[in-house]
Amino acid sequence: KFQIIHEISMAMNFLHSTKPPLLHLNLKTSNILLDDHLHAKVSDFGLVHWEDGMCKATFMERLMARGNINYIPPEVFTECSDSPGTAFDVYSFGIVIWEILTQQKPYTGRN
């Protein structure tokens, strides 16, 4: 499990190290593929491209159509920022780590 988590972190580090940083914006366990040797591959880059000047409403519309609310940082729904940053992917990665380690879907309890 820790090797998979490490490989995902390396992929996200690569994306975030580009100039300007590439944001995945849809990181979730269903977008992590494992090859025959159980090496992790990050997939579904449909939301990676951030269009300059895209309003938050348009971004949220695309995100809700393609993303999963369980992996979206709560500040996206409350802050007035015009564009997401790398913290968006970091939050989603934290949920992915939790799901890998517990083997449970996030937020499945009553509360």
Structure, described:
- The chain is globular and about 40 Å long.
- The chain has helices spanning 2-17, 56-66, 75-78, 86-102; strands at residues 32-34, 40-42.
- It has four helices and two strands, in the order αββααα.
- It is mainly α and 111 residues long.
- It has a two-stranded antiparallel sheet with strand order 1-2.
- A hairpin with a 5-residue loop joins strand 1 and strand 2 (40-42).
- The chain has a single domain (2-102), classed as Transferase(Phosphotransferase), domain 1.
- Helix 1 packs antiparallel against helix 4.
Topology:
Blueprint: H1 2-17, E1 32-34, E2 40-42, H2 56-66, H3 75-78, H4 86-102
Antiparallel strand pairs: 1-2
Helix pairs in contact: 1-4
Keywords:
mainly alpha, Transferase(Phosphotransferase), domain 1, two-stranded antiparallel ribbon, Prot_kinase_dom, ATP binding, Ser-Thr/Tyr_kinase_cat_dom, JUN kinase kinase kinase activity
Please give a quick description of this structure.
With 111 residues, the chain is mainly α. The protein contains four helices and two strands, in the order αββααα. It has one domain (2-102): Orthogonal Bundle (Transferase(Phosphotransferase), domain 1), CATH 1.10.510.10.
